[in-house]
Specification:
There is one protein chain. This protein is mostly helical and 176 residues long. The protein has one domain. It is 94% helix and 0% strand. It is built from two helices and no strands. Helix 1 packs antiparallel against helix 2. The model has no long low-confidence stretch (mean pLDDT 85).
Length: 176
């Protein structure tokens, strides 16, 4: 019986080893299958990710091209607007220069006219003052003559004497 006992223990051990080996084999097969499923899923995810990235990159490149075209068009539009504005303001500047030249010419003409008018008024004033001075001088000469000369002088002699005195004073006095 001992042999039988050893046989039974041996058979149990062998059975247990076989059972453990069988379970290990099943788990190994299952693990491989899970591993293969995971690798397949990983490849699928990588493929999907690569496709998504490729699609995003393609879309971004298309958007970049559109943006570059838009920027180029905007640059062209800005350049045209800049030229139009430049031309408009150059025209305005030329117009303002022409207007300022006209205004300057008008101001010069007005200043010349005012100067001529002032000179004319000054000359008229001087002439009036000369006449006043001559009249006062004549009155003075007549008054002095009446005091110095006897009252028996004729009008013609008196007139000649006054005119001679007046001419002498004009000749001696500086020109006004």
């Amino acid at each position: 019986m001992r042999e039988l006992f050893f046989f039974a223990v041996g058979a149990s051990i062998v059975g247990t080893v076989f059972f453990v080996s069988l379970v290990e084999l099943i788990y190994t097969i299952r693990r491989r299958k899970v591993h293969e499923d995971l690798e397949a899923r990983l490849k699928e995810i990588k493929s999907s990710y690569t496709e998504s990235i490729t699609k995003i990159v393609t879309e971004d490149r298309a958007k970049l091209e559109v943006a570059e075209k838009t920027a180029a068009e905007a640059g062209s539009t800005i350049q045209h607007e800049k030229e139009a504005i430049t031309q408009e303001y150059e025209g305005r500047i030329e117009e303002l220069q022409a207007n300022s030249e006209k205004a300057l010419a008008h101001a010069k003409a007005k200043a010349k006219k005012l100067q001529e008018q002032a000179e004319l008024e000054a000359e008229e004033y001087l002439n009036a003052r000369k006449k006043e001075v001559e009249q006062e001088l004549m009155d003075l000469v007549i008054a002095v003559t009446k005091k110095v000369l006897p009252s028996g002088i004729s009008y013609e002699a008196h007139k000649e004497l006054v005119l001679k005195a007046l001419n002498d004073v004009k000749a001696e006095a500086p020109s006004v």
